[in-house]
Structure prediction request, 438 residues.
Amino acid sequence: MIHVYELAKLDATQRERLMRRAEVAIDDLLEYVRPIVRAVRERGDAALIEYMARFDHVELTPDKLRVSRAEIEHAHKTLDKEVYSALKHAIHNVHTLHAQQMPHEQWMTQVAPGVMAGEKITPISSVGLYVPRGKGAFPSVMYMLATPAKIAGVPRIVVATPPAPDGSIDAASLVAADLCGVHEIYRIGGAQAIAALAYGTESIGRVRKITGPGNPYVSAAKRLLYGTVDVGLPAGPSESILLADESADPELVARDLLIEAEHGADSSSLLVTTSRALIEAVQPLMEEKMAALPAWRQAFCRAGFESEKGTGGLVLAATMREAVDFVNEYAPEHLEVQVHEPFALLPDLKNAGEILIGPYTPYCAGNYCVGTNAILPTGGFAHTYSCTSVFDFLKRTGLAYVTAEGYAAVGETTRRLATFEGFPAHANAVTARPVSRP
Prediction:
């Protein structure tokens, strides 16, 4: 039976449970992952190859870690033409949106006569993009990460992605990486891949930042390496809220609720609505649509919507204000809005990784080709983190320039505040400072 909740009738404990995502016991994995990270740091390629054989059952040698140009060219020749066309279309759309995000390379403003301040924008020198594999391949993750990195002008873009049992990387992912301008691709995965990117090995140069979703072992490695390398935004199990009123089409709602739910048993998919009639119409439709899915995808959906530990369901709110407050508190990774006047409601929606508006913008369109980035903060981190963008691959440096005219004003203010805070060297540096004049 699909979980159904009524917000007005939930006590504090029940509401807290509804807000909870799937529990990933990262803390329990830290001690398991720690020796893997240490071994890669100390033994480099040898440890990396050892762990790839143990965990991924792939026998590699140092010269086979990096994907060759010949393999990439072969992928271009063998990839299904329709898939190739779809990749190019999706990448074009993602590129178009992200190109608009690029700020001016440098800017300054006059904050007072003779006093100018601003910023210089510089790409991060090297980034590692982690592209998971799981039961299939995810070329969409490849281009969602690589496109903004390329637009930002990162000089060295490195991809780590787990290989198939035969050691190959799927053609679609290789083509996507090549179309997006990736410089290096390595057939490595798991905690050992994160360690290799962070520390470097004989065959793999270290990077300054790592970003991209991964399994709990990857997340544990990132946590251990925080401080050694920038580990990017937190991206855990998929989660979504579909916010709807009585105007929503039950058929479309039922379809869309299964989109993120089919990712895995730990995914969270919620309908939040003010319409009891919509819930009553959606329930039997969801049952039909789940039953039509392949057995393993159906099992994921049922685990989320029906099991005792499932974090999905149908939520009834007394008013749209109550519904919006719940959405903002939950801060979902994906938010789809199917209400009568969505743009009127938009200013009130504060916390979400992305907001997809209207019945023709399902989650899957955002996942692939609308142009928005599908690598988003999860676990409530949309309260403070943003969607992946070019800004994840850029850094800002403050700029200031003071003329002799401006110095006369800021020097005395600097001296007074430095003296107050007890920094005599600071104060002395601006006391009677000789200023050459033309």
Observations:
- Residues 26-225 form a domain with the Rossmann fold fold (CATH 3.40.50.1980).
